[in-house]
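Sequence only, no structure available. Ideas?
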Amino acid sequence: MKQYLLDSRQTEKKGALEHNLIEKPSRTIESIGAFQKLPVVQPSIDILGSALRKARRVSATKGIVNIAKREKNKGAKQLDALMKELAVPLRTYVENFPNKTHLHPYERSLIELTLGDGYYEKVLGKVDGLRKRVVSVGKEHASLCAKSTTKREAEERLIEGTKIIEASFDQERKVVDDLLNIAKTLRAMPVINLETPTLCLVGAPNVGKSSLVHVLSTGKPEICNYPFTTRGILMGHIIFNHQKFQVTDTPGLLKRHDDDRNNLEKLTLAVLSHLPTAVLYVHDLSGECGTSPSAQFSIYKEIREKFPEHLWLDVVSKADLLKSSPVIYATDDRDLTQHELEKYLKSGPDGAINVSVTTQEGVHELKQRVHELLNLQMAKIKDISNNQVKDISNNQEK
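Reply:
I predicted one. Tokens follow.
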């Protein structure tokens, strides 16, 4: 009995190390890469099978001569072991899956886009609830078994307790498999290196962003897949002066309110909102992409105003098509004047580079300007990093 009580106290040490999913002590927001550190979750059926096998192997404490006492000691220890083998993995998962509020904002956005708002916390909460239920039922039946007065009673309470603990776990074990799927999904997310300057290509759908990623990349870009879309996102690398940079396209933006945007568009906004990227904004004035120049101009103005802190370069793509078939569009957009639109139609925004992947027009200039932009982005990242180090140092001194 004393041995059993000792085991129970050890199991429940520090109140089972409760994991509050809403409020935890404040700490520094993690750098990106938390998804790759998620614990490996075992299938619930494997956890249950392993727990039952290990519990059955537990024997009575040596030196107990009385048969009834030996049987109730063994039964209590086996039920306690079964409870531990089920509860400890659940506790490990709950403790080692990060609180969403401590993640990098970009990773928080990916969780919401992939799983839906609140689902991550809901599943972790259910896993913790299952752990508490198993601990409660396990302690209750181990205690009952320890109070048995005969060998037969101890055997019956062991059988009954095992069935009830197993049923308690089995009833809700699906949440463990839900957590397993969450871990697999998040761990497979593409990883962005925050310390490597990144060029992000932005624009409406089908304006030529992917073609420009191929042109700018040193080597073949890789396709990065996100769970909420069947469309892969191209990620390439640019190497010059022995330095490595990242270049990526983003899903196209349409002219609509942010609340009406789909998950693909929200991914683009998440990249711009939370990652230290330089922007290469791509305009297609040829009439070939499916989004009118007036709509593109409206989108461009909105994004430019929303993210004024980003280093920025404008490109007019498909320049070869512009020369052969110039198109003039009327606009009913009250936010645009006809003069603004006509100016935009001729050459895009001020300072934009005309580029044609087909004829190679402007490609050399584009690469030079991109190299300059990424060097500036590198300096910007270093400044931000140095300022963060100073802030941490100042806070520690206080």
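Residues 363-397 form the longest helix (35 residues).
Hope that gets you unstuck.
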